[in-house]
Write a structure and sequence with these properties.
Helices cover 41% and strands 0% of the residues. The chain is an all-alpha fold. The longest helix is centred in the last third of the chain and has 46 residues, at 90-135. The termini are far apart.
C-alpha cells in the first residue's frame, strides 16, 4: 500500500495561518460597509401606538417592531416584568417563556368558544343545504 503524497497548497485549509494580506478569505473578513445604492442609513421609524416593550439597554425601540399582539392579562404582566430585567440574565428568558405558556392558557377559552361557534354554524347551515337540494 502506497501513501499518497499531498502538497500543502492542495489542502483546502492551506494558508489559514498566513499574514492577513495573503490569506484567501480576506475579502470576506473585511468590515461591513454601506452600499452605494442604499438611500438611507437607518430605516424610517415605525410610529409607536400603544404599549411597546423593548430591552433595557436600548433608549428606544428598534426601527421596526410588532404590535400585532400587545401584552395583555397575566402574560402581559409577566412580559413587562421580564423586560425590566436585562436580557443577558436568566430570569429574563425564563419569565418570557413562562409568559408564553400563560398566554397559551389564557387563549384556550377563546379557542374553544370559536370552535363551538363554528360547529354551531355548520350544524344549522347543513340542514338548509339538504332541504334546498331536495327541493330541486
Amino acid at each position: 500500500m502506497e501513501a499518497e503524497i499531498v502538497q500543502p497548497k492542495e489542502l483546502p485549509y492551506w494558508g489559514v495561518d498566513l499574514c492577513p494580506e495573503d490569506r484567501p478569505g480576506v475579502p470576506r473578513e473585511a468590515p461591513p460597509h454601506l452600499l452605494s445604492c442604499a438611500h438611507w442609513t437607518e430605516p424610517e421609524r415605525q410610529p409607536i401606538e400603544g404599549r411597546v416593550l423593548w430591552r433595557p439597554g436600548l433608549d428606544r425601540p428598534t426601527p421596526v417592531f410588532s404590535t400585532a399582539l400587545p401584552p395583555r392579562g397575566v402574560s402581559g404582566a409577566l412580559r413587562r416584568l421580564a423586560y425590566e430585567i436585562p436580557d443577558h440574565r436568566l430570569p429574563h428568558t425564563i419569565l418570557r417563556m413562562i409568559a408564553d405558556r400563560v398566554d397559551m392558557l389564557e387563549s384556550l377559552p377563546l379557542l374553544f368558544q370559536r370552535r363551538a361557534v363554528r360547529a354551531g354554524k355548520l350544524r344549522t347551515a347543513a340542514p338548509r343545504r339538504r332541504s334546498e337540494q331536495r327541493g330541486r
